[in-house]
Amino acid sequence: MSQTTRALPANLMTLLMPLADRTLILPQVSMAELVSYHPTRGAVSGPDWYLGQVEWRDLRLPLLSFEAASGSKPVIHDRCRVAVINALGEREHVKFLAVLLQGIPRSIRVEQNLESADVPLEPLELGAAKIGGEVVKVPDLAALEQLLEDEGLI
């Protein structure tokens, strides 16, 4: 039996996703769509990072503030956008989740040997890197999904 191995790509298309207090970096394929933010109607009960649900393609997705989920304050204004993120696939009933952004993500190609940044990590962050002098954080999407599940939101 022959075994096939695939080489890792020399570079990867990513998205720099602006938050109020940091920038996240994700592979471009992890975002399903970017949509406008519309405040949810009615009272939203739950933790302060849970901003209600958004309707997207006939689905109702939990919307969260990554900043608040990792210990900061949620920031909401008229320039916010919602990133619909592909779920990791560990839960059959969860295909997508929604994260509030503070603007429009920037597409950038990064090299495989990205320079790491020696900075403190907040909860829900796996690592940090430097891109053009800017520190970007790698979110822990599995932990984010677990947080939603622990609160009964997915």
TrEMBL record:
Q: Which GO terms describe its biological process?
A: chemotaxis; signal transduction
The record's section on SUPFAM superfamilies has: CheW-like
CheW-like domain span? 10-145
Tell me which positions the record assigns to the signal sequence.
Answer: none
Alphabetized InterPro entries for the sequence: CheW-like_dom_sf, CheW-lke_dom
Q: Identify this protein by name.
A: Chemotaxis protein
Q: Which organism is it from?
A: Pseudomonas matsuisoli
* Taxonomic path: Bacteria, Pseudomonadati, Pseudomonadota, Gammaproteobacteria, Pseudomonadales
